[in-house]
Amino acid sequence: MAEQTSQTRQQKSNDGEIQRPWLEFYEKGVPEHLEYPPLALWELVRNSAAAHPDKIATDFFGHTLTYSELWDSVQRFAHALQALGIRKGDRVGLMLPNCPQFVIAFYGAHLAGATVIAVNPIYTSRELEHVLKDSAAETLIVLDLKYPAFREVAATSQVKRTIVTGIQDYLPFPKNLLYPFKAKKEGMWVEVKPSPSIFFFKRLLKKYSPNPSKVLANPEEDVAMLLYTGGTTGFPKAAMLTHRNLAANALQNMSWTPGIETGKEVIGCVLPFFHSYGLSTALNYGMQIAAKLILFPKFSAADVVKGIAEKHITLFPGVPTMFVAINNYPDLRKYDLSSIKCCLSGGAPLPLEVKHQFEKSTGGKLLEGYGLSESSPVLTGNVFNGIIREGSIGIPLPDTDILIMDEDGKPVPIGEVGELAAAGPQIMKGYWNRPEETAKTLRDYAGRTWLFTGDMAKMDADGYFTIVDRKKDLILVGGYNVFPREVEEVLYEHPKVKEAVVAGVPDTFHGEFVKAYLVLHDGQTATEKEIQEFCKERISAYKVPKSVEFRKDLPKTIIGKILRRELLEEEKRRTAERKE
Predict the structure, then answer these.
(1) Which CATH superfamily is domain 474-579 in?
(2) CA dist., res. 440 & res. 425, Å (int)
(3) Chain mean position to CA 9
(4) Is 29 left (phi over 0), alpha (psi -120 to 50) or beta?
(5) Please, are residues 327 and 354 in contact by the beta-carbon 8 Å criterion?
(6) 43-57, 157-171, 556-570: which has the minimum mean pLDDT?
(7) How far apart are the C-alpha atoms of 24 and 5, rounded to whole Å?
(8) Alpha carbon distance 226, 431 (integer Å)
(9) Total Cβ atoms within 10 A of residue 10
């Protein structure tokens, strides 16, 4: 085995194009290359059900499904879809939070041969209308509370059939009986009446047997998901992810954590499954290792901390703002969080101060990784039990290559900043009905297809990568480049700062100036000058925020990613109002 590894490393380093110094830092047990069997995603559930039939697969507020029960439901749902007319390649939308219905419908739709459309439940009617039109989805599985949003755009969509479900459908007794009364009291109850085009989730599972028709699959080519990326300008576009893309990334993630035990792990599933990060690191990864999935429909620091302690969660993928909230949870010390083996951070840069405080407060290990929707999404990670470079997104996963490119699409020298480009089995097929966008993002180099991410990064001599910032978020101050993350790292060091983000605001003299938006810890006050003086001691003068705005909160996405663009939109509106 050692000889084969040496030969593989030699062969890869002699291809004349790509040097892979990171291979020397793979920890023991992590392979450099994996075999990727031609799996359809539903086979992850089937295989775990065969190996661990009595293990709990999902836990939703105390209601549990074993792997055998889950597999039975997946088959029944696939049969129901086929009976309703769904055929291979048809698009099926899932407008659901993290709940057992999402898990069943996700794999059931794939078993029926369909392509899943991940629909954010908090979409406005305008956003939902775009996704349904763009994907030409003819079937929508929707939470009853969100049905009114769909009803507003139903006439303009191609949706022929709607399958409705409610949170109460999978709550344990007596919560399932009490929930409707609570929802009605709080004004959150939505009554959906049956019709020839409206069906109900639980009724379908009871009606159809676990014997769907077999669908011939081609995992390499068949699109498993249309995953809509957060549109920073205009409407979002859909990444076409094949069964192989997603299954390969689940296998890569599993190989990256050699200390993880199949059939014994418990994953805290707070990241929404309709987002690529939660889908890969919680749902598909969890099915791959036959983990118990603790399902949270939304994030609450209190619920997560309590869940870790009571459910003995061992793995918890999250985003930096979640770890900030946990760090600042007032009763944190009252809970035993020692079950945690590893917490993963992605979706946005992890400030070092947040990492240090979390590890000190909980005793857990917090590792930063990197990925994006177009790559299923994980590309890199800090090693589980090896050398960790703080502030780094780590090194590439098995069979993943990364190059740092200049403006002409050529590699830059080690240590220099350029655009991160990646190649590997997890890279998307392209954008749905967007050939021009696909051509800009997927480009050929050295005989392979590379995903150009738009992220500015650099690689050190050992192959560890650091994200400097988003290419589009770069701030130009009088001809100087300012990367927001560098300024934000400094702001997070200030003892009064709870959350921070900076952006470039148009300036007639300098082109742009740096503005900071801050949320302070409860009970704290600060002045603009105080913040500026703190920054001046740590960064160059042109990087110091010229303006500081103190806020009660910051706009965030559903997974807790701070929306810099929304703050800039606010700035534009203010400027326009002042001119009037």
Answers:
(1) ANL, C-terminal domain (3.30.300.30)
(2) 19
(3) 31
(4) left
(5) yes
(6) 556-570
(7) 11
(8) 9
(9) 9
Angle, in degrees to the nearest 10, between helices 67-83 and 100-111: 60
Residue type for 92, please? Answer: V
pTM above 0.90, yes or no: no
For residue range 464-486, list pLDDT tens digits in order.
Answer: 999 887 777 878 786 667 878 88
User: Which tokens go with 94?
Assistant: 């899932």
CATH architecture, range 42-298: 3-Layer(aba) Sandwich (3.40)
Alpha helices in 143-242 (DSSP H): 147-153, 175-185, 201-207
List the domain boundaries for the chain.
Answer: 42-298, 474-579
203-217, 238-252, 363-377, 394-408: which range is least confident on average? 363-377
- Give which of 499, 497, 490 is closest to 553, Cα–Cα: 499
Do 494 and 519 contact (CB within 8 A), yes or no? no
Residue reference for tokens 């459908």: 169
Angle between the N-to-C axes of helices 42-51 and 100-111, in degrees from 0 to 180, rounded to the nearest 10: 110
Distance CA 538, CA 175 (A): 53
Distance CA 288, CA 36 (A): 13
Residue 116 gets the label, from left (phi > 0), alpha (psi -120 to 50) or beta, of: beta
HSE-CB at 34 with a 13 A cutoff on CA atoms is 23
pLDDT confidence tier of residue 3, bands split at 50, 70 and 90:
very low
388 in Cβ contact with 439 (< 8 Å): no
DSSP H or E stretch at residue 507 = strand 497-507
Structure tokens at 228: 């809509």
In terms of C-beta density within 10 A (0-12 exposed, 13-18 middle, 19 or more buried), how is residue 408 classed? exposed
CA end-to-end distance (rounded Å), the chain: 73
Locus of tokens 């780590």? 394
Q: In what order do the strands lie in the sheet with 547-550?
A: 497-507, 511-520, 547-550
pLDDT reported for residue 387: 86
Dihedrals phi, psi of 51, to nearest 5 degrees:
-85, -30
Token readout for 370 is 């990197």
Residue 409: count of CB within 10 angstroms of its CB: 15
Tokens of 105: 């419908």
Calpha distance 272→283 (Å, rounded): 9
Alpha carbon distances (Å) from 345 to 138, 309, 485: 35, 20, 16
Written as six digits, the tokens of 520 are 């302070």
Reported as a single tens digit per residue, the pLDDT across 489-518 is 899 999 999 999 999 998 766 678 999 999
pLDDT in tens, 22-51: 999 999 999 999 999 999 999 999 999 999
Place of tokens 């697969």: 57
Q: Which residues pair with 225 in a beta bridge?
A: 116, 241
- Distance CA(68)–CA(290), nearest Å, equals 11
